[in-house]
Amino acid sequence: MKHAILLSAVPVDAAMKRYCRPGSFVVACDAGYRNSDCLGVRPDLIVGDFDSAPQPDTDSDTIVLPHVKDDTDTHYAAKWLLENGYTQVTMLGALGGARLEHTIANLSTGLFLAEHGVDVVLADTASEIHYLVPGKDLTLQRGEWQYLSVFPWDGKLIGVDVDQSANIDTYGEGMCVTSAMKGLAETVKHMLGEVVAGNFANYGGQVETLGLVNGDDPTANYVQLPMETTQWGDGFTQDDYKALVKAMYDGDVTVSNDISAMPATTITVNFAGNIK
What is the pTM of this model? Predict the structure, then answer.
């Protein structure tokens, strides 16, 4: 696989040398060439309009861009790498700095590369940013990181476990379609009732599969959709949902527990993969 290092203008720390592989193609974007000495690398290509730093006197290949253009210097370089067959890109000096809009633009550039099949990471001394795009899994190696955060960038999402609409919609109003919830409240109430009734021995040390227990009240079940925050529409109304729950409870509709493949549907579903 062809790997490239993309150097943007935010100053980097020498510790970032760990991202520099032998034989990697190095592209410096405008003032990003100043980061090459700190990292102990020599740019193979320098790209920029040189509005933030003088054009260097170098024997490295240089592409001089106009000041007025649609792409940032970094995004132009990313397109160049994509066109020239690079499948792995590490972006350094792309996060932070004095200009917030450049960080946002660089995050968009990373997404652009990921959506075109490139394995891309943006890194600084404190963090790494990876992209999970439809149709691909993302495997992250365990490191010395303390936190893992997941943020939706665009599109519609379905939450899991609990009603996630309040969290998801902070990134874009109406982004959360619904949430496939575990009925945690009902489950806890049921099990506490069983314990109080002296029936703990019937459940202790066992794995229970809890599902539908009520065909008339979907909110009483151990798995459910949130009634208040789901984006109901003419294609699937709240009444349609209640009728479906009843049909499943009565046995008129059966649901397979086979998870070896995505179920056949009459709608388009983009599977976003898994974070492992």
Answer: 0.61
